[in-house]
Structures are given as C-alpha cells and as structure tokens.
Amino acid sequence: MTGSIPIQSVRLYEVSPRDGLQNEPEILSIDAKRRLILGLVGAGFRDIEVTSFVRPSWVPQLADAAELVRSLPAVQGVRYWGLVPNERGLERAIECGLRNVATVLSASETHNRKNVNRTRQESLAAMRQVIATAKDEGVAVRSYISTVFGCPYEGAVAVRDSVALASQLFEAGASEVALGDTTGMGDPVLVQRVVGAMAAAGLPLSRIALHLHDTKGTALANVLSGYLAGVRIFDGSIGGVGGCPYAPGASGNAASEDLAHMFQAMGIETGIDLERASQVGVALADDLGRELPGRYHRFWLGSQARARATRSA
Q: Would residue 244 show up in a list of annotated catalytic residues for this protein?
C-alpha cells in the first residue's frame, strides 16, 4: 500500500483501564492505574477510557474513579473517557473535570436488564437525557450498544434492533456509537452484515466503532471484516485484558498490540508505537500477576529475551 496508493489509517480506542480492569480479581492501586494510562499515552494512544462512574459497590475495581481522573495530567491531543451509567454518573464525571463520557445499553432486552436493571426503552430514555445534559455542558458522548452480535441469554440478536438503537443514539446527539460483541459471538460474515445494515440505513460509518472480544479467537478476523466493510474506529485493550461482569463467557477484549501489528503489517497507520505498547502489556501482566491473552506483547518479550541471549553468547 505504497506509491500512488494513499496510506489508510484507523483509530484505536483503548479500553484497558476501564473495561480491562473491571472484571479482574486484583484491584490495582491508583499509582498502577496511572502508570498504565501514562504508558498508553506514551505508546501513542489518543483515546483512552480510563474508568467508570458506576456505583463503587457494583464495580469495586473502579471505585477510585474521581481520584484517578484528577490525578491524570492533561496531554495535548489525548482524550480521557469515562463510562457513565446515568445522570448521577455524568455529574460525578463532570465534577472531576472529565470532558468525554460513554453511555451503554444493550441490543438484547435480557442482557440490558442484567447489566443495568432496566428495559431497553427505559435505558434509551435515560441515555437521551444523559446525552442532552452532556451536550449542554460541552461534554462529548460515545454510546455503546452491547450484545449487537449475539447475547449469552437470548442467542442471536436482530440486526434491525441494533440499527434502530444506533439511529436513535445518533439522533440524540452521540458523537460516536460503538457496536459491542460482548461475548465474542460474532463472525466475519455477521460483522459485514451488521456494518452493511448500518450503512444502508444512512448511518455514518466514520462515527461507528467496533468493540470486539476474542472469546473464541475471532477478534482479529472480525476486525479485518469490519475494516473491509468501511469501519475505521476499533476498540482494543492492552494485552487483551477484560470482560463484562454481567455477561457469562465475556473474556478478553481484542488486544490492542495485536490490532496495531495487524494494521501496520498491512500498511495501515495506527499512530501506535508497537514496542512501547508491548512494554505496557508486559507491565500490566506483571501488575495483575498473570499472563494476559494478547499475543504480540508476548512475542515481543520473547524477542527481547532472544536478543539478550544472542548478545551474551
């Protein structure tokens, strides 16, 4: 993809400090979280979802949300994001200076009740109010739709339902809508069907993101399918850490280093320094005390060990 062919680019939206840590048995200190976030900034990530303003008893791993956000330095070109479940969460986010927030509802009725204890329509009405308030305050809103590619409780989810929800969220004022494969049930053909339906409905693919999980090892294939269908924003989590506590089987997000490596190998710009991203993945694995499922950071670590062995030989 060189010469007269213009180099394409994608935007990688990093979720490890929030979606990555929310389901971990190990609760990291603020210092460790701050080190993770600043490491991500150093690796070139410009959109980082740093925490969630849910009730601390629901997700104790993120109970330090306000203190963490206040401790983060402003960095030119970097946007810190926080998940807000309701108006109170939005108030807390704004109080500590956050200017970018994310909302969430599910395409599946059952998962929505399990996740936020509301019907889809109740959630949509609440999201409309959150988005309106945020816009009045000059705060950008990203809206997640979970279980777009399948629900652990209901199975297949009607594509038309996801399209309708995305349309209504854009109409409400969301700047971006992220389509979630919450338990990794999607496949490349389904991804193309969903993205194609969004485009056919007149929704702007430039403002649609894919949030894919690697539960069955298909995240990279699904991301590539989404790219070929016209999506240019992809969520990732360093080391592949993460999962939803209210979705059985929701293990591992798409690993950010793996995504960056795949795209860069294809000549597609990501803005990510792979070596520095891999260092962050290795450090997070050390902090959590376990091997993380992402592949590239482990390859990088092995290559470093081989290089040291060669030099000492």
A: yes
Asked if residue 4 is part of any domain, the answer here is no
| 5: in domain | no
Q: What is the pTM of this model?
A: 0.94
CA distance 112 to 194: 20
**What is the CATH classification number for the domain harbouring 181?**
3.20.20.70
Question: Is residue 7 very low, low, confident or very high in pLDDT (cuts 50, 70, 90)?
Answer: low
**Residue-range definition of the domain harbouring residue 248:** 11-312
**pLDDT bracket for residue 183 (50, 70, 90):** confident
Q: Is residue 1 part of a domain?
A: no
Given a cut of 90, whether residue 213 has pLDDT beyond it is yes
Query: ∠ CA(218), CA(222), CA(228), 5° rounding?
Result: 150
Is residue 5 pLDDT above 80, yes or no? no
Residue 6 lies in a domain: no
Q: Where are the alpha helices (DSSP H) in the chain?
A: 30-42, 65-71, 87-95, 109-116, 120-136, 159-172, 188-200, 219-228, 256-265, 274-288, 296-312
Amino acid at 94: I
Q: Which amino acid is at 40?
A: L
Number of domains in the chain: 1
| The one catalytic residue among 208, 244, 280, 282 | 244
Contact 71, 35 (CB under 8 A): no
Whether residue 104 contacts residue 83, with contact meaning beta carbons closer than 8 Å, is answered with yes
Amino acid in position 278: S
pLDDT at residue 284 greater than cutoff 60: yes
- 36-252-96 Cα angle (round to 5): 40
Residues 290/310, Cβ–Cβ less than 8 Å: no
CA 232/CA 221 separation, integer angstroms: 15
